[in-house]
C-alpha cells in the first residue's frame, strides 16, 4: 500500500527548525517581550529587506492587515473596493470590516487570477481601490491592473497572503501597490508559530499610520490620536518568523521544483492546470488542478492514500455572508467553474521525491 500523503503536512518543516525556534522563544521569554517589541522589529526589518520595500509592519493576522490597509486609504462606508470573486474570503472581510462594499470581478479562465479586462466594467464613482490577489502564490497581472488604477485614480493594494517571495517580471511582489498585505498563518509558505500577519509599503506616511492604528491609535503611550485597534504581532510569532524567513527562499524553490515536476510529468487529459504566463514566477502556496470528475477523482486519490483539499469550494459572491449583495449563480462563471472543479494536490517543501513520484504516478493512472 502507498504511503499516506496529505495536501499539507507541517511536521517536517517544524522538526527541521524546532531547535532554532525554541532558542529564539527562550530569548523572547528572557526579555518578556511578548507583545510587539524587539523580536517583531527584527522580523519587520529582515522582511522588508527580503521583499525590497522600505517598510514592513507586523500585525496579528492577515485579515486585519487588509482591514488596516482600507483604513489607511480612508476607505469606509459608501465606498467600493474591487476584488476577485475567487479568493479566500478574508480579502472581502478587509473591505467589509472597514464598512465598505466588496465588488467582485471574475477570474481569467486560464490563469485563474483576476481578469483585468473585466475590471473597468465594475468601476463606479464609488470605487476607491482594487485589491489584487496573488492567488495560490502566482502573481496576477500587476501592470494591467495598475494601469486601470492609474487611469481611474484609484488605489492598488496587493493581497500577498499566499505569495511571500513570488516574483512578477523579475521583481518580488509586495512593493507594487500602495500597500501589500500578508498572512503568516502557520500553513502559509512563511508561517508563524501562531497567528500573524503584516503589511509592506514604500510610503512613509502609510507606514507611520499603520504602526499607530495597530497600537490603539497612539504614537506616544496613552495619548490616542484616533480610534485604534489592538492588532499587534506577538513576540513569539515575530521570533519564529525571523528563524523561518532564512529558510523561505529554499523552501519556495523546493516547491517550485515539485510544481515543475507536476507540470511536466502529469500527463492526463482529465486534469487541467493553472496557466503560468512567462512573467509569473510563483511560489506554489497551493497546487490546484481542475477536473470534470472532481468527486470521483478525489475518491480515487483517497483510495490511493493521497488526501486532496479544495481551495475554495464556494466563490465569495455566493457565500451566505454576502447574500445581501444579491448575486446569483452565473454572475462570475469562471470563478464558479473553478470552485466546483478545483482539487488541491499535495504541496509543501518537505515532500520527498518518492512522494512526488507517487502523486504523479497515481494521477497518470487515473
Ligand atoms: C488570499 C488571502 N487573504 C487573506 C488571508 C487572511 O489571512 P489570515 O488567515 O492570517 O487572517 C488569507 C489567509 O488565509 C488568504 O489566503
Instruction: Work out the strand percent.
Output: 15-25%
CATH superfamily of the largest domain: Type I PLP-dependent aspartate aminotransferase-like (Major domain)
CATH-defined topology of the largest domain: Aspartate Aminotransferase, domain 2
**Helical proportion, percent range:** 25-40%
Cα(first) to Cα(last) distance is 17 Å
CATH architecture label name of the largest domain: 3-Layer(aba) Sandwich
* Overall pLDDT metric: 98
Highest CATH level, the class of the largest domain: Alpha Beta
Radius of gyration, CA atoms, in whole angstroms: 20 Å
Question: What is the 3D form?
Answer: globular
Q: Largest sheet at a glance? A: 7 strands, mixed
What is the SS-derived class? alpha/beta
Number of helices: 10
Number of discrete domains: 2
Bound ions, cofactors and other small molecules, one mention each = pyridoxal-5'-phosphate
Order of strands in the sheet with most strands: 2-10-9-6-5-3-4
Helix-strand layout with pairing:
Elements: E1 5-6, H1 11-31, H2 38-51, E2 55-59, H3 62-72, E3 80-84, H4 90-97, E4 101-105, E5 127-133, H5 142-152, E6 155-159, E7 167-168, E8 171-172, E9 179-183, E10 197-201, H6 204-213, E11 218-220, E12 223-224, H7 235-265, E13 272-273, E14 280-281, E15 287-290, H8 294-303, E16 306-307, H9 333-341, E17 342-345, H10 353-364
Parallel strand pairs: 1-16, 3-4, 3-5, 5-6, 6-9
Antiparallel strand pairs: 2-10, 7-8, 7-14, 9-10, 11-12, 13-15, 15-17
Helix pairs in contact: 1-7, 2-7, 3-4
The chain binds pyridoxal-5'-phosphate.
The site of pyridoxal-5'-phosphate has 14 residues, from helix 3 and helix 4.
Amino acid at each position: 500500500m502507498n504511503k499516506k500523503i496529505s495536501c499539507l503536512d507541517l511536521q517536517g518543516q517544524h522538526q527541521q527548525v524546532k531547535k532554532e525556534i525554541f532558542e529564539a522563544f527562550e530569548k523572547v521569554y528572557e526579555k518578556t517581550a511578548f507583545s510587539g517589541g524587539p523580536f517583531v522589529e527584527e522580523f519587520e526589518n529582515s522582511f522588508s529587506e527580503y521583499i525590497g520595500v522600505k517598510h514592513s509592519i507586523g500585525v496579528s493576522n492577515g485579515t486585519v492587515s487588509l482591514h488596516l490597509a482600507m483604513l489607511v486609504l480612508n476607505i469606509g462606508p459608501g465606498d467600493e473596493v474591487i476584488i476577485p470573486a475567487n479568493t479566500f474570503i478574508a480579502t472581502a472581510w478587509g473591505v467589509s470590516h472597514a464598512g465598505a462594499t466588496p465588488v467582485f470581478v471574475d477570474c481569467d479562465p486560464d490563469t485563474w487570477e483576476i481578469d483585468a479586462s473585466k475590471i473597468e466594467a465594475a468601476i463606479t464613482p464609488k470605487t476607491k481601490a482594487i485589491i489584487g490577489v496573488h492567488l495560490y502564490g502566482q502573481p496576477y497581472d500587476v501592470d494591467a491592473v495598475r494601469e486601470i488604477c492609474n487611469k481611474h485614480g484609484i488605489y492598488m493594494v496587493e493581497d500577498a497572503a499566499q505569495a511571500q517571495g513570488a516574483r512578477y517580471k523579475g521583481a518580488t511582489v509586495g512593493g507594487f501597490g500602495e500597500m501589500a498585505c500578508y498572512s503568516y498563518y502557520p500553513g502559509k509558505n512563511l508561517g508563524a508559530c501562531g497567528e500573524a500577519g503584516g503589511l509592506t509599503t514604500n510610503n512613509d506616511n502609510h507606514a507611520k499610520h499603520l504602526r499607530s492604528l495597530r497600537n490603539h491609535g497612539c504614537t506616544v503611550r496613552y495619548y490616542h490620536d484616533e480610534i485604534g485597534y489592538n492588532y499587534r504581532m506577538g513576540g513569539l510569532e515575530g521570533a519564529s518568523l525571523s528563524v523561518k524567513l532564512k529558510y523561505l527562499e529554499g523552501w519556495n524553490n523546493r516547491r517550485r521544483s515539485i510544481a515543475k515536476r507536476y507540470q511536466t510529468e502529469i500527463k492526463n487529459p482529465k486534469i487541467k492546470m493553472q496557466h503560468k504566463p512567462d512573467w509569473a514566477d510563483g511560489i506554489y502556496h497551493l497546487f490546484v488542478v481542475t477536473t470534470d470528475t472532481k468527486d470521483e477523482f478525489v475518491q480515487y486519490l483517497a483510495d490511493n492514500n493521497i488526501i486532496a483539499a479544495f481551495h475554495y469550494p464556494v466563490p465569495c459572491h455566493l457565500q451566505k455572508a454576502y447574500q445581501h449583495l444579491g448575486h446569483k449563480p452565473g454572475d462570475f462563471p469562471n470563478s464558479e467553474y473553478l470552485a466546483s472543479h478545483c482539487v488541491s494536490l499535495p504541496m509543501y517543501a518537505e515532500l520527498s521525491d518518492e512522494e512526488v513520484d507517487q502523486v504523479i504516478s497515481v494521477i497518470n493512472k487515473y
